[in-house]
């Protein structure tokens, strides 16, 4: 090669025997010149194409797996056709409300030092991305589906998904549903120590007054409007007769009374317009393949213990007795795996620890906390661990849109007389029944999951917690407005 005069500076081009033999034969027989020129042109074209291919495969600019991950464009996003709305979901409009009702609450949270209430608001409510979970392949933070999501983040996750949802309409005239993206849980948390009730309720009252001033609100007396709140409804229903626990009065305001309230815990007796939505757990997939992979892994994970309890004895509450009884039984039994949550330790906020414990057990205890429901129920479903309840209000009367009516197909309810022999009661359940229940629990994972806000309908390929809510809201609005 070195002896040949160079026509260009592409040094990595290998010498082409085809090209040289061609020029040799041309010298011998010039009569069929035209054909040969055509052939040469064709060969040259092929050669150039091949060079181009080479350039792409070995290009020094091809992305490195980690360092340029943030800059890498998603190729599938470029050539995607517009997403179409699921025909079971009515077009919805997101009300434009002042940032003091959402973004400013987040900003105020972020500006403070991380605290129990405020460390979770990053990444639109997803929280801190997790590198990896034990046993899951890959540790690319950029594409992760795992986050240390706080239990109160549902209101932010709902908003983030709704904003990019294909059923969202920008025209209120075309909308059947109206979503009000107020971060009521963040407001309630910020105001819980405010002793002046007028001040504590101020933002909620202001929001209600604003909604009442909108013509679209009056079209159906607010019945086509919805709020999603990330905390139990008790945080928004301060009673003048009961002890002040820091709640405001948002859900007791007359303007809100006809709206549909999506909440992680509905009031079992007074929450006539409240519907339960799942607490967020740690998994926020973008595709159905990610979900299927996780489900497959759960089916094969070895369950070494009969039951597990993640939690601690509740402080200053009459439920202390029950939770301590469960905890004591767990400590005494070598068939129970405890993860004790003590003030000052971080184990119970560590998703790896929580899921690791729950993945090793057949059953996960869900005794009531200060309220009936626990985020832990959704962590246990995510871990394929069959939840064990001590009250029907911990799930059965809460999440009617999400859970099978046949409660015994996916969970266990222990009656008060069974509370002191948990191991005996659970040990009695036949192995085949346990397998069937676990399969049902694993099957529930997609619909109880908050998909990643970046997910698109075509890529996601399943209905997540927010899609399920929108489908059910669509049915509900159809019957209410008739
Ligand atoms: C509470 O705050 C409001 C508004 O600032 C004020 O008018 C009211 O007097 C306060 N109430 C009490 C009991 O301090
Ligand atoms: C709620 O609905 C009732 C009954 O339809 C109606 O009388 C009331 O005015 C509505 N409330 C609001 C705030 O529009």
TrEMBL record:
Residue ranges annotated for the Exostosin GT47 domain, each copy included: 93-415
Segments traversing the membrane: 39-58
Major subcellular site: Golgi
Domain of life: Eukaryota
Presence of the UniProt keyword Transmembrane in the record: yes
Keyword presence, Transferase: yes
Entry-linked Pfam families: Exostosin_GT47
Location in the cell: Golgi apparatus membrane
Residue ranges of coiled coil: none
GO molecular function: glycosyltransferase activity
GO CC annotations on file: Golgi membrane
Family to which the UniProt record says this protein belongs: Belongs to the glycosyltransferase 47 family.
Protein name per UniProt: Xyloglucan galactosyltransferase GT17
UniProt lineage: Eukaryota, Viridiplantae, Streptophyta, Embryophyta, Tracheophyta
């Amino acid at each position: 090669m070195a002896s040949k005069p160079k026509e260009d500076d592409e040094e990595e081009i290998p010498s082409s025997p085809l090209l040289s033999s061609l020029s040799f034969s041309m010298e011998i027989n010039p009569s069929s010149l035209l054909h040969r020129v055509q052939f040469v042109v064709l060969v040259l074209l092929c050669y150039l194409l091949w060079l181009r291919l080479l350039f792409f495969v070995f290009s020094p600019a091809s992305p490195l797996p980690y360092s340029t991950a943030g800059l890498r464009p998603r190729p599938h996003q470029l050539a995607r056709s517009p997403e179409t709305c699921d025909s079971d979901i009515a077009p919805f409009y997101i009300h434009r409300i002042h940032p003091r009702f959402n973004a400013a609450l987040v900003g105020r949270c972020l500006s403070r030092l991380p605290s129990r209430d405020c460390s979770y608001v990053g990444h639109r409510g997803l929280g801190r991305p997790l590198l990896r979970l034990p046993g899951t392949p890959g540790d690319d933070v950029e594409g992760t589906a795992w986050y240390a999501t706080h239990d109160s983040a549902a209101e932010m996750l709902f908003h983030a998904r709704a904003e990019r949802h294909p059923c969202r309409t920008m025209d209120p005239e075309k909308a059947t549903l109206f979503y009000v993206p107020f971060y009521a849980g963040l407001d309630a948390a910020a105001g819980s120590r405010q002793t002046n009730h007028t001040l504590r309720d101020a933002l909620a009252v202001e929001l209600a007054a604003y909604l009442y001033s909108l013509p679209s609100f009056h079209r159906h007396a607010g019945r086509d409007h919805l709020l999603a709140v990330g905390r139990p409804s008790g945080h928004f229903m301060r009673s003048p007769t009961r002890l002040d626990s820091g709640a405001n009065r948002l859900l007791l305001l007359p303007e809100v009374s006809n709206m549909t309230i999506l909440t992680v815990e509905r009031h079992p007796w007074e929450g006539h317009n409240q519907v339960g939505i799942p607490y967020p757990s740690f998994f926020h997939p973008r595709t159905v393949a990610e979900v299927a992979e996780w489900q497959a892994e759960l089916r094969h994970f070895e369950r070494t213990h009969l039951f597990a309890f993640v939690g601690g004895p509740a402080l200053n509450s009459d439920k202390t007795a029950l939770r301590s009884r469960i905890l004591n039984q767990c400590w005494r039994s070598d068939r129970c795996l405890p993860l004790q949550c003590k003030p000052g330790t971080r184990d119970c906020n560590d998703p790896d620890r929580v899921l690791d414990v729950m993945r090793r057990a057949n059953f996960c205890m869900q005794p009531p906390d200060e309220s009936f429901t626990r985020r832990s129920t959704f962590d246990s479903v995510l871990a394929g661990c069959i939840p064990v309840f001590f009250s029907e209000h911990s799930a059965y009367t809460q999440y009617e849109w999400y859970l099978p009516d046949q409660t015994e197909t996916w969970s266990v309810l222990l009656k008060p007389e069974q509370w002191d022999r948990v191991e005996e009661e659970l040990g009695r359940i036949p192995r085949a029944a346990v397998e069937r229940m676990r399969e049902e629990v694993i099957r529930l994972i997609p619909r109880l999951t908050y998909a990643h806000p970046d997910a698109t309908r075509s890529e996601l390929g399943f209905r997540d917690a927010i899609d399920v809510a929108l489908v059910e809201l669509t049915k509900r609005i159809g019957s209410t407005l008739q």
